[in-house]
Every structure is written in structure tokens, then in C-alpha cells.
Amino acid sequence: MPPGKVLQPVLKMKVDELFLCWLSESSTQAMLQDCLQRIKMPGGPEGVGGDAGQPGPPFAAPALACRPRGLDSSGAPSPSPVSTALPLGAASSARSGPPVRGPRRSAGTRVVQTRKEQPLPPAASLSIPTFYFPRGRPQDAVNVDAIIAKIERTFAQFPHERATMGDMGRVAKACGCPLYWKGPLFCGAGGERTGSVSVHKFVAMWRKMLQSCHDDAAKFVHLLVSPGGNSLAQEDFIPFLQDVVNTHPGLAFLKEASEFHSRYITTVIQRIFYTVNRSWSGRITCAELRRSTFLQNVALLEDEVDINQLTEFFSYEHFYVIYCKFWELDTDHDLFIDAQDLARHNDHAISTKMIERIFSGAVTRGKKVQKEGKISYADFVWFLISEEDKKTPTSIEYWFRCMDLDGDGVLSMFELEYFYEEQCRRLDSMAIEALPFEDCLCQMLDLVKPQSEGRITLHDLKRCKLASVFFDTFFNIEKYLDHEQREQISLFRESESEGPELSDWERYAAEEYDILVAEEAMGEPWEDGYEAELSPVDQKLSALRSPLAQRPFFEAPTGLGAVELYEYEHGGDDLPPS
Q1: Paired strand residues for 198
Q2: 152, 219, 226, 497: least buried by Cβ within 10 Å?
Q3: In which element (H, E) is residue 468 found?
């Protein structure tokens, strides 16, 4: 026995031991054999209802005689005297038994009969219907042959029945897909290697897809995913978004400034993963795509000429604001910023401790953060959206990860005090009396109302409608003072308002875009001392009918480097102003 292990009695083992001890006694075995012989005797059960004068073995007595014999005080079986068992009775007795005995014997007979196990009928097999469909629920009404015939008729209109990238819009409509699926359809059929797609190759690909993928999410992932994968990485979206940039009328002015295609594509990819990739895994699955509104926004690209109306992913104005904010902080313009650069955001509004947590790797990916203490433009997209809109699930998770110092999934009072200390020091330097931590803690607990006393979980903050007030209290001095000046009742009214109102991020992006356009129109230099890097494109672009044509743009004569994504190594390219 291992040292330290305590023996514990097992009741079943003790009962089995006593039963075997009783069963090994010779008197017990003789009694059981006698009972079995009486049961097997022919005409036994029928003899109960026969002539009373005819000798026959009663069945009530053996059932009583089969009881185990008593044990003495020492635990050993005691001798079985004759008086311990009821007499079997004399069959030749002239006196018939009392009328009660008949029912007793029949009762004994019923007991023996009920103990005989009757064979049970075979159980009917239960058929559990399929409830898990990772590639969508199959649809019985899909007529594959009719769809294939329509695709073949479309290909018949092309020379040699081969479709180029420009023809794929008609092919997408023949497949019943939104217009901007044409890029993924072209790449999925191998068109990027040969420049065109034959009808036979496309029909074979689409027939196979209809048999294995049963909804739009599964089809979209199948078209974009790398060979052998089942989820989408960031680089898988590049061909699709490049086609959007090349062909959408709302982005026509970008044709003259191809240097910034990758910047726009990187921004859209980060916004897609920020909203859709709820697991923070860096790969989007069919289930995540199915639960999001991304495919609905892709379908709207066909009908919406103004790309800025699609504010959730594709808005050019939002890209413009994000890139300008990053350009202001990136003083050396190497597309990376360090902690000192990020601390200058919004006039040093964010505390130093929170800046350190952002650069600790809690919410960033990539090797630059760990090796050189820098974050990329892709990381900055996540930061800025999370900073300006702390009401979305992703932003709440973002800041919760930063505040959870030990990573135990709970914000303790120690962690809250750790961040609040710097807030108090900054308020003192501004000659503002800071609220003691105990009073501030009471206010925050009343605000969040955590389910467990003394600890705040991620679920508590997602349930709270004023999570932005909670976060700003501990690491954003400017917004904390703004919340203090406004009444809490007005904050609740804003959080509970319903209807098509703008989100915090959409409101911020609209305001900042107007400011940037006004500054560019006036030709004012930026606050960091640099001349206005954002200049309008040449006069030819102003003649375009697109409402975006006259908006200011970044003008850069140099070539474009590699697309900056989480896993990509940056080549060090820069886009200097002209």
C-alpha cells in the first residue's frame, strides 16, 4: 500500500464475504438441495389444489425453511435445532387445515412463480436524428442538374467556353451567389494559375461543392481556404478583397493609387477578424462565419455604390481615420510603433500601466512585440477600435485581458487597485481630488453587480451596460473625467437607447474624418510638426462621379511593400509623402 493512503471499508465486499461464509456451511447446502428437489417434484404446484388426503409437499414450508440459520454472538453459525424451522406438517392427518392455509399455500406458489424471469421482448432500436451539420444542413429541394445546366449555358457565351476574371460576375449569378463571390469562385476553380477557367473544371468543382457544402458559410470557407485546411487565416481573404478594391465603384479612385491597396486590405481583414473571430484563435471557422453578418455585408457590396455605407467592415472613411491616427504616432514611418509612441495617443490619455499591458502580449500577436517591443499597424487597428468603443463583446474581452494580470479569468480587488493607483497620481498632478479606492470600488461594484462577491468576471462585464465607464475609470483619465461630469442617469439612458443609432466607433470615425478633411482642405500641418502627408490626388481623380473621388488621399510615389498581417514579416517599406 502506498504511504499515506488510508484504508477505507467497502460495504459490498463485507456483505459478499458473509454471504460466502454462510453458503459454505454444510447445513445451508443441504437445505438448498432439499428446496430445489421439492420445487422440481412433478405436480408440485398443482398438488396444492388437489385432494387434501393425498400426500403432497406443501410449498409454503420450504420457502420459510430456506431462511439462513442464525449466528451466535461470536459470528459463527449456531447449531440448527429442530425447533428453529416450522414443521412441514403431516400429510396423513385426518383433520384438514384451517381455511386460511389454502390462501397461504397459493400465495407461496405465486411468489415462486413471480421470481421466474420471463424473457423480455427485444427493445425497439431508437433512431436519433442527426443534429450536427458542420457544413450546413442538407437541403432536399436543391436541383443540382438544373444549376449545372444554367452554368453550362453561361459558359457557352464565352469564347472557347472559358471564363476570365471579368466574366466571373455572370458565372456567380448563374450559381446563385452574390456578385462579389466572383473572386473566390475564380480562385477556387484554379483560375489564378491559368488566367481563365474552363467549363468542365468549374462544373466539376461546383458539383463537388454542392454535394459537400450546404450553406453559404461552408461554401465561402471552401472557396477561400488553403488546401488541407478547414478554417480561414488572414491571408486567405487577400484575393477576395483585392477583387473588391479593383472592381467596386465606391473604390474606383484607388485605381490611381495602388500603393495603398494593401493598407486598405489589411484594415478590412483586421476588422473582419475583430468582429467574426470570437474565439481569438486567429482562424475563422464555418460556425463563426455563420453566426456573423459578414456574408450579408458581402451581398450588400453589389447594391451599395457608396462603400462608406458599409460601416461594419468595408468603409473607406474608417480606414482613412485609422491610418491617419497610426501615421501620427509612427514618427519614423516604419509601420511599427513602440510604447512611447502609443502613449502619445489622445494626448497621453491612457495610463502607463495599461500601455505596458498592451505590449505584454496579452492582446497582440507577432514576434515584434516580444523581441523589439513594437506593435504593427494590424495590432493598432484592434487597439483603436477597442479604445473608442468599449461596448462591443470583443472590446470588453480586449480590455479584460489587459486588466487580468494573473490570467485567472477574474479581476480581483488587487488588480483594480493596481490600475487605479496611477489614476490617482495623475489626478493629483492635475490638482483634482481623487476618490479613495474604497469609495471607487463600491461605486464600481454597484455599477457591475458581480455575481460573486469581491471578484468581477468577464460575464459580469458583458452583462453590464456601462462597461465603458468601468474600464475608463481605471486607465483612461480623459474619459474618466468626462464620465464624472455627466450624470449616471444620462449614461443609462444612452446605453438603453434603441434604434438605428450610431455606435461609439461609428460616431468617433465620422467626427474624426470630418476633422481630417477640414484640416486637409485648409492645408494645416499636423500637430507633430510634419507637413500634411495627406494630400488630394491629382485633378483627374476629382472628375470621377464617385462621391469618394474628391476625398483626400495619401499620395506616395514609391512602391508598396508586403502586406502587413499578423504572421507576415514586414519588409521595411515606407510610404513617404511626395
Answers
A1: 162
A2: 497
A3: helix 467-475
Which residues of 236-353 form beta strands (DSSP E)?
336-338
Q: How far is CA 126 from CA 121, 123, 129, 188, 282, in A?
A: 15, 9, 10, 41, 40
- Within a domain: residue 398? no
Q: Are residues 202 and 237 in the same domain?
A: no
Q: Which of 273, 299, 319 is the last residue of a domain?
A: 319
Residue 149 is assigned to a structural domain of this protein:
yes
Residues 234 and 315 reside in one and the same domain: yes
**Residue matched to cell numbers 474624426:** 512
Output the pTM of the full model: 0.69
Question: End-to-end distance of the chain based on CA atoms, in angstroms?
Answer: 82
Closest CA to 552 of 269, 323, 241, 249: 323
Any domain includes 247:
yes
User: Which grid cell is 404?
Assistant: 487580468
Cell reading at 413? 480587488
On whether both 178 and 242 belong to a single domain, the answer is: no
- pLDDT, tens digit, 9 for 90 and up, residues 185-242: 999 888 888 889 999 999 999 999 888 888 899 999 999 998 888 899 999 999 999 9
List of residues 6+ apart from 180 with CB closer than 8 A: 172, 240, 243, 244, 247, 248, 298, 301, 302
Strand partners, 162: 198
- Pick the last residue of a domain from 293, 319, 345: 319
Boundaries of domain holding 300? 229-319
480 falls within a domain: no
- What amino acid occupies position 264? Y
- Helical ranges in 156-293 per DSSP H: 168-174, 182-188, 191-194, 199-212, 216-224, 238-247, 261-276, 286-291
Spatial contact of 391 and 319, defined as CB atoms under 8 Å apart:
no
DSSP code, position 230: S
Q: Tell me the per-residue pLDDT of 487-546, one tens digit each, with 9 for 90 and over.
A: 655 655 555 555 568 899 999 999 999 999 998 888 755 444 444 343 333 333 333 333
When divided into structural domains, the chain yields a total of 2
DSSP classification of residue 558: S
